[in-house]
Amino acid sequence: MKFHLCWKKAVLLAVAALLILAPAAIAAESVEGENLKMESLKTSVKVGGTVTVSLGLNEVTADSVTGGIKFDTNLMECTAITGPNGEALSDFMVTGDVDKANPPHVFYKTYSSLDSDDVNTTGIVGFAYAGLVAAPYSEETVLKATFKAKATGEATFVLFEDTSYDYAAGSGYQNDASATAKTTITEGGGMTIKLTNRTSGADVKGQVDGIEDGGDYAEGDTFTVTCGEACVIIAKQGDTLTRLTGEKVADGQYRFTLTDCEEIIIDKKGDVTLDGNLKNQDATQIKANALSKKSFNAEQLLTGDVDANGVIKNQDATKAKAAALGKKPLDWDEAASQ
What we know:
Number of strands: 23
CATH architecture of the largest domain: Sandwich
Number of domains: 2
CATH topology of the largest domain: Immunoglobulin-like
Helix content: 10-25%
Oligomer: single chain
Radius of gyration: 26 Å
Mean pLDDT: 82
Strand content: 35-45%
């Protein structure tokens, strides 16, 4: 099924086809229509950056619900359409024998697909739920769409819907409602940043806001790192690695300023094995380095320097071991503010 502007016609065709098979029977900005809701997770983005928009359904009694997100293809390109948890979406259809006395409510679900629909030509990401009888729909997030900023300007995301309360009779309530969210796209700064977050697969993950992998930024742009365990933030330019100084925003959250670099690396403090988790093995290796029994590369020298004084000593190993054993957590401030 293609998603074009004529949504009523599309749903009519879907219902008619299926009745033959069964004769009985999306900084954040949120906006809401009559039955649908949409949230844009960013109100501003740089060229090359991305924004995720979620499309949701409120609890409603209807037989068919159709709607979606319209976007400006000159400013945005849709790069992914997934379910609420990042899962792949697939069309659903009830076929075969249908109990005439108790027909299923939702017998057809379809979603826009980047593979088969002209999403980036029509500028529409949408869905259709077609039912045989009026019945309740539960509140849910229907889909999430990721968009990449192509050019500067004010990009709009328009939530629209066409919900029928008496679809089979061809009459009753029809709602062609719309609501708009806006995202301002600004010029990139000429630095394409690779973001390496080694904590992303860790037991305690670090969250990075303000930059993303492959985004275009300028020297002086800021970003924040939030984590329940102390981290080391490193800027890499060629073979040179520099530990960035952060400004405390809140407990476990620091703001950093981009320098001229090509990569930002997020490490746990003391994690010289670079797997995202601080363990007793890390403390052992730090001690071996302090005793000149083991060499470290440039990144390990920065993460292993728990005191952030430029030299790895036995004291760093002792603190890392205490943290690994859960006796005393490492201090963000030692790593972030010195």
